[in-house]
Amino acid sequence: MLRRLSVSLVVLLLLGTFCGVRTAALPAPAAVAAAAPAYTITEPDLFIYVPSNAAQLQPLQVLVALHGMGGTGPAFCQSLLAAAERNGWMVVAPTFKYQDYKNPALVLQDDMTFLPRLKAMLDALPARTGLATREKVLLYGHSRGGQAVHRFATFYPERVLGVAALSAGSYTLPLETAPVNGRAQALPLPYGVADMGSYFGHGFSSDAFRRVAFRIEVGGQDRNPDDTARAWDSYLGRTRVDRARAYTQALQGIGVEATLGVYPDAGHGVTPQMSEEALAFLQGVPARHAARFGFGPVRAAWSNRNLVSAAPQRRRY
Question: Which domains does the chain have, with CATH numbers?
Fold first, then answer.
């Protein structure tokens, strides 16, 4: 009997030791995968910021940032990257060498060159990054860039969700005619959209344009008429403040969701408040405006029905 108990005790001890070793040898819980870092793609005329965990956020919302006279895309968009990271936005910031912004013919020439180029850049994003993007983009521009973003929305409204245009010196009215000295006058580009068909093969799409939300901002001290081109005076007024008000009223007059912010103490630069409120507006557009009109189709690079994953050069931001 005693011998049987001893054998049983030895067996139990051995099992306990074995189980202890086995328990100690169990692998620790799998570590959480490290977040994919944000990165940038830099080319001579284009800067792209891709937020962290972009692959999990697809399709990505694109924010286009357009600089003013003499600026560059990389420098202009730096103040926007923290908001882009928080919101999961891909930032596209091209660099354009604008000509004289006071010469209407050169303004139109630049816009007919640069804005189709911007559209091509947006179309190429999935192939360039390997990431799916939303069809409709958000636009943020200051000064000459403010002109460019609102005209991009005028030319390609089906590609735009919302626009924040800050301190633009002139605007293209979404109208074919406007009263001048008591008489209706045709408004060709870059003043209006009467002759858009001769440039694009189709006229202005007022239905698509009314699906774009606008935030127009200007400094209250940005009133020097010498800083604006005289050719727009009859349609918009003489100063940037006058023109921002006139353009906002024109948008509202055709049923566009448009708000105006005039910042009494600001000049022509972008104050922190202006930037913060413009970005807050853009952040709200997808949740508010797209609920009514949608994001448009997803853009992705496909090959034989499989998503093509590009391998861009990455550097940590």
Answer: 39-303 (3.40.50.1820)
